[in-house]
């Protein structure tokens, strides 16, 4: 039964049928409720920490996730992280979709990485043909269908209708044939439709569900019932009224989750009056439809910490950070994480592709003299040779044989900012050259040394790679021996900056600076270098503790040191940088007296 200014709403719910009436100024506008009939295992909303808003793996519907009990069964099933959320949506003409989204912004879904506007598969029309199949003042209806037929069969010449590209090419071919006065060598290319790129064939064994849209982590489907009352997932257009009511492309505006299961009478007045009624008065052909749909979020949608929170047992801290070295993710897993290290590595690899291709874990602290780390490859390819880009400079690194720390990039940049073009830098523990090669672009010359022969090999390779080999002189010797050799040569007077970045032992090498000028006149004018030495401290006052170690190594009480905390490497353990000008009394000290 219909009355003027009212719209008949039809429902298909298990509850007794109700007839709802919504007064509108235009009786041609209609709203319908598409039912949903589907059963899943639903997560309880009465959990200890209920998620009040937004998507979560603890909300929605999905098969129950069975957590494996031992390491042998630790396999990651991506389909177990699929979640289905039942929502309400407004189906609107695509031409008015953007404007309505702006007006309804506060009432839409607004979930991260999920668009509020969803497409309906198979519902799009070519914009050039949309005016021919729509009714009303746009010249559509029966006249539009006649015009469309005339264009298809090439009878549209002279009535201002544009020919299709194929018909236009045939028209040119008839006019300028092979016996004509004009040659069209490229006639076959005129208005030819562009070639479609061939899609890569997927493996037949792995059947992937086709997902709509540019992103593969979410799909939106409309749910409706068939005539027999069974729950199926069907198309949006219903046989009885859809084909006549909807002409042209449409879109779905996903409403906020609090409106899920609501009828038209339960929608806020901002939607019913302020927006829908306003647009209803503007156009006599504008139609809105309230539908029930389901939003499916797949494994690719969820963030790394959200998946690990579900995978790991209660009480286990979720690892949330790792160091990135080129294509390698470097983890420092705790003891409690080791039974699940394969799962953690798989999630880290999946959520950081294609940048991350290998996931490793440090299985032991650094004890050897070359400062190399004992690493275990957990996921991805087993290549530990990678290329790191820092401050626009490329470094080739092999984590199996050399040391690298991306976390010191900020500290290296701070140190470089204090260098000038007149400086000559002496890097005692250079490694593969992250500081030495970067400094070579700024300073006059660099002397770089390292005890590790593999690090020296990569240092030379990286200097050539960045075309700075003429400004870097490379040495392979012990740090104490390197310092004495440099200041025993004629290069001593030119050195203005000395960097000693070996936090475990660097302070112990400071005694090599005692008496570097002992064989020269004490009244001689000389340039005393600025020394930057790094170290660790677990004391309550780390600055005082490190300062005392420097005094003991130099056997000098009056040392004016500028101290800086670099970073907290472990609870209660600080990495510090001490910068000071080498005292003249230390440089000219007579070491023969010291026993």
UniProtKB/TrEMBL annotation:
Primary location recorded for the protein, binned into one broad class: mitochondrion
Group of enzyme by EC: transferase
GO cellular component: mitochondrial matrix; nucleus
EC number of the protein: 2.1.1.228
Subunit text: Monomer.
UniProt function note: Specifically methylates the N1 position of guanosine-37 in various cytoplasmic and mitochondrial tRNAs. Methylation is not dependent on the nature of the nucleoside 5' of the target nucleoside. This is the first step in the biosynthesis of wybutosine (yW), a modified base adjacent to the anticodon of tRNAs and required for accurate decoding.
Family stated for the protein in its record: Belongs to the TRM5 / TYW2 family.
Official protein name in the record: tRNA (guanine(37)-N1)-methyltransferase
Organism of origin: Arachis duranensis
